[in-house]
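User: Can you predict the 3D structure for this chain?
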Amino acid sequence: MPRGSTDPLASSCFPLVPYANRIADGLFTLGENTVRLPRNFPPETSSLHGFGWQDKWEIDSASASECTLEHRHPGRGPGPWLDNRTDWHWAYQAQQRIRLGPQGCTISLVVTNRSNRVMPAGLGLHPYFRRRPETRLRFAAEGVMLVDEASIPTGTMAPPGRFGDFARGSPLPDETVDHCFAGWNGVAVIEDNLGTIALTARGAPQLHVYAPVDGSALCLEPVSHVPDALNRTPVSMTFLPPGCTASLGMGISVSAID
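Assistant: Here is the predicted structure, written as structure tokens:
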């Protein structure tokens, strides 16, 4: 990340907490509460990626090869909450642990519910990877969720090869991919003429792939739930009782061609 930058899009990876990807129109209903969230990435009409990616994180500890970062969201205080202010009602505490070693980088992301009500929770990590003209991507999934013009799932699940034969290894297509691949097995590999990058994850049964047609980026995002899950498939969220924790982990390793 460039020194002095405050733009998370300039970083090599940012955290998604307490939810990942999009919530359509920044709105969902849970029990007696209608939750209105900020549309935090104009001109998008959705609420995107939660709060952690745009908020400040405090350094809890740091060394030459490891650091722990912490982010707290105060929430609304004790529930029930019956008004319609725009915010995330629940208080939570999130922690990132980043480690560098001979085999590469590992990042763990943990969220703890600090409110007095059950909290829906989702996690993800948003790393940016090297992308070259000869890049090939390889991973296995059960299907890919098709989306509308606002990048919200339509409810149609296409075969996993819709954008390329990624199970065997495929170049990226001549169209933008901004889609969630469901039933991911937790492993993805990027190959080019400089070497191989391997991604592994735990707690992430979905892989969101972002690869714009202009070739400017390649993001492979391990996520714990599908886009707009709170409106479409709440069961894919984790519902944390007060004081309980959810976690997600990611590892990245690289091998160069001699």
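The chain has a mean pLDDT of 95. The first helix runs from residue 229 to 232.
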